[in-house]
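Example for tutorial group B:
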C-alpha cells in the first residue's frame, strides 16, 4: 500500500525559502521510497509555493482574502477541504504552529512529524527534528514534547540535498587564502545587506579572483548590484548548483539557516550576518566555537564592521584554515545520517 504524506509548510520573500528547501529534501526521499507526498501551503504575498510544483509535487494552496495568516483560519480551511482525507504522516515546518493547531488537525494524519528550530512552544508529535547546534541541543525539547516522541537532534540529521552527499565531492580541500568568495543570503530579497557587503569589499580593494553572487529572482535592485561589482563577479539567480560554488569558494559571506550545515559539510569558512531572530543563537554558538565569524543582524550591521572583519581574515594566514577545520568537526560525512536515516526510521514505525 502506498503511504500518503502531507507537508504543511510556508515560504515567501519575507519568510525565506529555507523551510521549503528542507521539506523538499524529505519529500524527495519519501517519494524515492514509494510514498505519495503533497504540500499544503498558505498563499502569502510573494509566496514560494511554486517550489514544490517545480519538483512535481501537488500543492494545496490555503487562501485568504487579506493574505494575512492566522492559525485558526488555517485550521478552518483545512477542516473545510480535508475533513474526509486521511494521511499516514503529516510533516509540519512552521514557526506559527504549535500544540493548539496540532490538536485540531489530528483527524488529518495517523502520525505527526514536527521540524523545529526554536524550542519555544508545545508540540504534540510522534517525531521531532531540530538539525541545529546550540547549547543543550539534546535536552532543550524536554518540556515541550511528549515522552514518546522520537527525536532527531543535531547537524548529523541535517536535511542536505543529494548534491552535497555526492561521493565525488572533494570535501577536504584546504583553504589558506581568499581568492574566491561566495555571497549567498537565501531565497528572499536580501539586496540591502548584499549592497553593504559589496561596498565593504570595494573599500578593501583586496585582490579577489572571483565572486559568485547567489540571489533570488525576486531580488530588487539587481542592476544596482551589478554596478557595484568591481571584481570578476558572476550572478546566479535561483542557483541549482550551490554545492559546487561552495566547493570552489575559499570564503562564504551569507546568512544562517540550513546553509550553516551545508557549509560545515564542505568545511567552508563563513562570515555570517543573520536575517532573522531564529538564526542568532545558532550563529552565536558557531562563532563561539570558532566555526564562523558572526557579525550580527543585517538590520544593524554597518559596512565598517564588515570591512574590519574581512580585513582581519584577508590579512591572516591561519583564520581560514582554523575555521575550515572546526567546521569539518561539526559534520563528519562518514557518520552523517540525514534524510535517508530519518525517513527509514519513520517508515519502520508507521
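The residue assignment follows.
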Amino acid at each position: 500500500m502506498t503511504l500518503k504524506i502531507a507537508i504543511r509548510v510556508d515560504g515567501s520573500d519575507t519568510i525565506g525559502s529555507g523551510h521549503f528547501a528542507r521539506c523538499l529534501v524529505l519529500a524527495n526521499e519519501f517519494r524515492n521510497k514509494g510514498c505519495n507526498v503533497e504540500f499544503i501551503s498558505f498563499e502569502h504575498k510573494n509566496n514560494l509555493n511554486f517550489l514544490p510544483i517545480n519538483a512535481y509535487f501537488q500543492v494545496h494552496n490555503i487562501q485568504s482574502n487579506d493574505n494575512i495568516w492566522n492559525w485558526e483560519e488555517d485550521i478552518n480551511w483545512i477542516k473545510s477541504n480535508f475533513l474526509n482525507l486521511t494521511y499516514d504522516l503529516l510533516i509540519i515546518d512552521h514557526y506559527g504552529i504549535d500544540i493548539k493547531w496540532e490538536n485540531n488537525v489530528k483527524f488529518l494524519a495517523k502520525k505527526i512529524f514536527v521540524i523545529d528550530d526554536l524550542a519555544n512552544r508545545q508540540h504534540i508529535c510522534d517525531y521531532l527534528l531540530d538539525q541545529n547546534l546550540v547549547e543543550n541541543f539534546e535536552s532543550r525539547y524536554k518540556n515541550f514534547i511528549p515522552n514518546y516522541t522520537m527525536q532527531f537532534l543535531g547537524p548529523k540529521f541535517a536535511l542536505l540535498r543529494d548534491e552535497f552527499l555526492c561521493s565525488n565531492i572533494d570535501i577536504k580541500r584546504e583553504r589558506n587564502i581568499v581568492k574566491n568568495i561566495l555571497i549567498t543570503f537565501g531565497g528572499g530579497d536580501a539586496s540591502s545587506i548584499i549592497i553593504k557587503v559589496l561596498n565593504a569589499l570595494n573599500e578593501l580593494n583586496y585582490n579577489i579572483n572571483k565572486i559568485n553572487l547567489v540571489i533570488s529572482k525576486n531580488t530588487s535592485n539587481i542592476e544596482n548590484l551589478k554596478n557595484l561589482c568591481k571584481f570578476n563577479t558572476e550572478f546566479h539567480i535561483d542557483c541549482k548548483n550551490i554545492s559546487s560554488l561552495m566547493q570552489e569558494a575559499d570564503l562564504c559571506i551569507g546568512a544562517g539557516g540550513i546553509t550553516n550545515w551545508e557549509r560545515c559539510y564542505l568545511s567552508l569558512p563563513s562570515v555570517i550576518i543573520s536575517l532573522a531572530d531564529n538564526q542568532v543563537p545558532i550563529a552565536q554558538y558557531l562563532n563561539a566555537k570558532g566555526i564562523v565569524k558572526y557579525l550580527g543582524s543585517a538590520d544593524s550591521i554597518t559596512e565598517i564592521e564588515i570591512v574590519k572583519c574581512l580585513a582581519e581574515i584577508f590579512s591572516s594566514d591561519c583564520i581560514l584554515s582554523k575555521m575550515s577545520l572546526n567546521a569539518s568537526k561539526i559534520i563528519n560525512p562518514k557518520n552523517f545520517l540525514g534524510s535517508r536515516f530519518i525517513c527509514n526510521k519513520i517508515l519502520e514505525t508507521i
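The first strand starts at residue 4 and ends at 9. Compare this with the pattern of hydrophobic and polar residues in the output above.
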